[in-house]
Amino acid sequence: MESDKIQFVCTERNQQKLVYRGRCYTLKRTNRNDKCWICALRLPWKTVLYLFDATHVIRTGEHAEGWRVDAHEFYHQEQLNELKRLAAGDPRLVSEIYDLLASNASTSLDTAAYFPSWDQARNTMYYSRARRYPRLPARRQDLRLNAEQTTTKSGAQFLMYHSPTNDILIFATEAGVRLLAQSNCWCGDGTFKIVPSWYQQLFTLHVFMRVKLLPVV
After folding, report:
1. Strand 186-191 to strand 202-209: parallel, antiparallel, or no bridges (unpaired)?
2. CA 103, CA 84: separation in Å to the nearest integer?
3. Which Gene3D superfamilies does this one have (predicted)?
4. To which H or E segment does residue 119 belong?
5. Does 66 fall in a domain?
6. The pLDDT of residue 58
7. Count of CB atoms within 10 A of residue 131's CB?
8. Is the pLDDT of residue 51 over 60?
9. pLDDT above 80: residue 69
10. For residue 153, what are the domain limits?
């Protein structure tokens, strides 16, 4: 028996589709009291579905027989959308988010085979995360850091030093600096690949805490 559950999924081109009773619909228009969705299948005739407040189908017409949404393809796209959503809003590493969902999917043979591969999901996830951040201005001199970029989520000051003339930015909290002062062993790490072209290098300082490296500056 086909499910009456209404589901929404976004395509790779970020177009929203509605799935109802095993069939896929595209939004045609928004009326005053409802929304009109039409069958996504390219046929000379279109089955129309009227939906109220995204939870209740008011009425629908006859549908072409012999065509259903592929359950495996739907699951694949649904999981890709979830990876994209988490990459945009979850602070964890993109690879960590992917590994967690992939691990959950691997518990069932029905889902493991159709979960997006890392190659399929990687670009989508990184692009989704990049859209969270404002574009850099054309010149370094025009850079303006707002409160969200200079404080931690708990409200602590994060930007310790900013010198536009020397092209130096130092990010650290007072608590992190205290840990650095108390530590007998520091670990430095320099990288060049991920910094904007304005700067030459990103250099971070870490301390050992509970057998783990903790970034502090």
Report:
1. antiparallel
2. 17
3. 2.20.25.240
4. helix 118-130
5. no
6. 45
7. 11
8. no
9. no
10. 140-215
